[in-house]
Design a protein that fits this description.
- The chain is mainly α.
Length: 91
């Protein structure tokens, strides 16, 4: 008489658990390396960054704010509509 229950090979479950563990380990290692890269990134203090930004804004003309910098000559304004060349063009 055959056995009422078959014994399954447990190797497949073991391999699946091992592959999941390997996947988790790989993800943790990737996360760890990204965090290390973040730690190595050069940092500056907020006060230094804000002073640098203020200095840039005070020394760089912004053509979109004429109330602060005054009217801009059309030749200097990169946002002014370009007028077609009044000279003749060869076709």
């Amino acid at each position: 008489m055959p056995a009422p229950y078959d014994i399954r090979a447990g190797g497949d479950v073991k391999n699946k658990k091992q592959s999941m563990a390997d996947l988790k380990l790989r993800r943790l290692n990737e996360l760890n390396s990204r965090l290390k890269e973040d730690l190595e990134r050069p940092r500056i203090k907020v006060s230094e960054a804000s002073m640098s930004l203020i200095q840039y804004c005070q020394t760089t003309k912004d053509f979109m704010v004429p109330s602060l910098w005054g009217q801009v000559d059309k030749r200097e304004d990169p946002y002014a509509p370009q007028q077609p060349n009044p000279c003749c063009s060869v076709m």
